[in-house]
Amino acid sequence: MIEVNDNFRLLPVSYLFSEVGRRVADFKAAHPDREVIRMDIGDVTRPLFPCVIKALHEAADELACPESFHGYGPEQGYSFLRDAIARYDYAENGIHIEANDIFVSDGAKSDLGNLGDILSRKCKVAVMNPAYPVYVDDNVIDGRAGELIENHWSNLVYLECDPENNFLPSLPDEKVDVIYLCFPNNPTGVAIKKEQLKLWVDYALANGSLIIYDSAYESFVRDTDTVKSIYEIPGAEKVAIEVRSYSKTAGFTGLRCGYTVVPHTLKGLYANGAEVELNTLWNRRQTTKFNGASYVAQKGAAALYTEEGRASIRENSDYYLKNAAIILKTFKEIGFKAFGGENSPYVWVSAGDGSDSWSLFNRFLQDFGFSTTPGSGFGSKGEGYVRLTGFNSRENTVKAMERLKEAYKG
Ligand code: PLP
Questions:
Q1: Which atom of ligand 1 is nearest to the CA of 257?
Q2: What is the DSSP pairing of strand 240-245 with strand 148-149?
Q3: Could you identify which of 123, 227, 258, 401 might form a hypothetical disulfide with 177, taking C-beta atoms 3.0 to 4.6 angstroms apart as the criterion?
Q4: For the CA of 109, the nearest atom of ligand 1
Q5: Strand 102-105 relative to strand 258-261, pairing
């Protein structure tokens, strides 16, 4: 039989969200009369915007005629979308990003995983603790994580986040090569201010490190001193790759489209000491292993840059932000410790009584009929927390929070 990638043996048996889904399904099967409100998974519930639907229909019609049919497109994405991204997501915010720094993809998750292809297996990697599990698992698969010893991978550097540091980690004591940062953060819901992110950019400039900046939730940022793009920080174009997604911004979780920015100014070294642009490597990687996001999805994404599309993004993220605010307020009122929920759709909750994550998960599910995501699944520093999301409907969010308030009143 074929020898397989042994790193898969090292991965935890179940992906966090599948485990939550399984437990919720078991609960429903055992209690068919109980209504369970999903406050756990980071999927959205509101449909695509009318302008996107119109663009999708038009694109489908184009594909129906020989004169307007599109087959393979550019692996890097169509210029109509790359130009719109460069203009509206960057230039209009005072950031200079070239259209050919931008690579359109089928979403942030694949890009985050695939970026490992252009990095040395020897790179020392730092991840926030807690963090979106994909960063750690990708590095386990690539063989950069080492061994799992007491819930910690031996070769990873953990950037600990807790209430004492407002969930904004300190700079590492040692030199690291790759740093995954995500703001507004999943799972803690905490966003970062410009002067705080500047510390990381300066560290990366001083140490020759690469920051992989996951900006999947930038559309939820409302405060003007809070970062939407790492390229707002001077020098970031020399040290950072930014990964973005239309999933949460515009309900593209099922349609699939996102993009990654790899500026030409970002350089790396081959083992022989020769310098190379990361853009060149990523372009080579994408043209070898990816045939581009679908024409239809890219047409849908381009519609987001019309006046109507931009207004819809604002309205849509306002809706989810309001849900997050309701969740945050409710938990604070009943005496829990609750964080995030501003400039972010996520709320990070602890009972403050030593309850662990899975017992909180069970309590909310069994006593109040809503599901959460156990914080321990995001890393050891997530123990004692659960994550709730603002992605359900207003009605369901209010209903779940009313159940809590009712039980805790008086
Ligand atoms: N990055 C973060 C922090 C996420 O929370 C998610 C999805 O939940 C993703 C990336 C993946 O986004 P996409 O749907 O574009 O693959």
A1: 15
A2: unpaired
A3: 123
A4: 16
A5: antiparallel
**Cis (ω within 30 of 0) for the bond into 187?**
yes
CA distance 293 to 77: 7
Long-range (24+ apart) CB contacts under 8 A made by 351-355 are 351/384, 354/384, 355/384
Domains within the chain, CATH numbers bracketed: 6-47+309-408 (3.90.1150.10), 53-306 (3.40.640.10)
For residue 255, the CA-to-ligand 1 centroid distance in Å is 13
- Give the tokens for residue 124: 């020392």
- DSSP assignment string, 42-73: ----SPPPHHHHHHHHHHHHHHTSTTT---S-
Q: Which ligand 1 atom is nearest residue 245's CA?
A: 15
Q: How far is the CA of 69 from the centre of ligand 1 (A)?
A: 31
Percent of the chain residues past pLDDT 90, beyond the cut:
94
Confidence of residue 410 (pLDDT cuts 50, 70, 90): low
Average pLDDT over residues 347-373: 95
Strands (E), 196-340: 210-214, 240-245, 258-261, 267-269, 275-277, 337-340
pLDDT (tens digit, 9 = 90+) per residue, 270-325?
999 999 999 999 999 999 999 999 999 999 999 999 999 999 999 999 999 999 99
Summarised one tens digit per residue, pLDDT across range 160-169 is 999 999 999 9
Ligand 1: lining residues by beta carbon, under 6 Å? 42, 107-109, 132, 182, 186, 214, 216, 245, 247, 253, 258
> Strand runs (DSSP E) across 203-293, as ranges?
210-214, 240-245, 258-261, 267-269, 275-277
**Angle subtended at Cα 316 by Cα 232 and Cα 296, rounded to the nearest 5 degrees:** 85
Query: Ligand 1 pocket check: which of 132, 180, 212, 249 to mutate, most ligand atoms within 8 Å of Cβ?
Result: 132
Please give the structure tokens belonging to residue 146.
């080492």
